[in-house]
Amino acid sequence: MAEPKKPTPAPAKQILNKEKKQLDFAFGKENYMWMLVGIAFIVIGFVLMSGGKTDDPNKFHPDEIFSARRIIIAPIVVLLGYAIEIFAILKKPKD
Q: Closest Cα partner for 81 from 39, 22, 18?
């Protein structure tokens, strides 16, 4: 009976290339930078929405609660942040 052949060891370059391919990340550095920008926009939007609290629960200040900053500008900034996040995820990383 013939003995089975022993596999020959792979050259060092092939082993290093395989290890390098395993260490690749799904996103590149630029993608992560865009993600941080998107998160910053989302946080800024939520900070713009905050406020309007009164010390006396019997008083109602509609001009503070329904200001343009809270009902128009802040939601647009938050949606812009989410759009940047989608862009950062879908953008192909540079090789």
A: 39
